[in-house]
């Protein structure tokens, strides 16, 4: 017990810097006992989600309610423990998901692009999920994007590069985890003549579920991988705003995961809202907002489980970094906001590219006119009564998308304007976002801190201002009593 309390004293958050001053956070003997006995750990990671993404979703929900300016809180922003978390990697102040995920999963900084190895790329770092499995707990990994993507991968794989998708997929197939759910791994990365990772999984006895019926039929005790392969987006779930009743949501994969993992020895499950990040890379505020809300619905499944097991469970919600440099405020709207403008957008940038712009580009053969597309732009984004400036932006972007521009912009200028996305589509989202009072600074990540929230056993440890590596340390303290820690290590 003395050794355990010493560990707790070292790992506990030293302070919380808020408006009321600095408050020291400590754990009593009783609290230490409770922390050491946490049986169920649910970790939710909103990829690319920091305060701007959260606040935009809450402001949008409030505007939907038709009330005065304010926010309608998401479920996780009402959790009792809340902190700020730094995200830099070992070689960059602005991290990528691999390094940020490794910090959360393993408690150490590494270089951007590295999957659960140290910064020298020579030492394998044990993950919190692997430790949980070694200690006898069941383990599940869920994501709205492909589960060999960086954030899911850091919990089960160890690789010098996040881009080695085939090797990462084989690590997944050979793992002793119990459940994977959500997106499809990149089977297109399979070397010629080799088995796909899914074929290896089948050889290893995994049960594969690709429909809602097969998902619902899964039973505890099966080693299962449930993915959705009928979306129009490659390897991932469709954006929440593009989904219909036939689509399987992130919340459904989360709910089923809890059902499959629940057992007397406890479980660890990580759930990633990966398409928040993808939407923000493309500067699509509507897609980001709707996916943040979808992520919150998955968190609600964790909260339901907590309510049934309040003395044995911790639910943690965090982000790995911010994406896009989203800000709530735009020079053109000054002090005004109009979040209801977001409702004018009926499909994501990705759906518009696939179902509207791509067919038009093919049929027009580089000789189209913006006026021919305007009715569909108005239908998809509600852009009417365009100003001369907005129309000029659209005309220039249209020329670049269709290929009939008379003067090509420099590569640098092209990237600054459009970030590598379809010029017309990203310009449309920019105009709509600006009308709502939202703006962007980047098509990449930024270095601002993210927020971390916690509910349950040991929640007080997550108050304050700390590094992403500390999330691992707090989880480790919460999950493992001294004897269980010895098994995990």
From TrEMBL:
> Which keywords fit this entry according to its UniProt record?
Hydrolase, Magnesium, Metal-binding, Phosphoprotein, Signal, Zinc
Source species of the chain: Candidatus Thalassospirochaeta sargassi
**GO MF, one example:** alkaline phosphatase activity
Protein name (record): Alkaline phosphatase
Family, according to the entry, reads as follows: Belongs to the alkaline phosphatase family.
In terms of domain of life, where is this protein from? Answer: Bacteria
Residues that span the membrane, as ranges = none
Kindly state what the record says about how the cofactor is bound.
Binds 1 Mg(2+) ion.
Enzyme Commission code(s) on record = 3.1.3.1
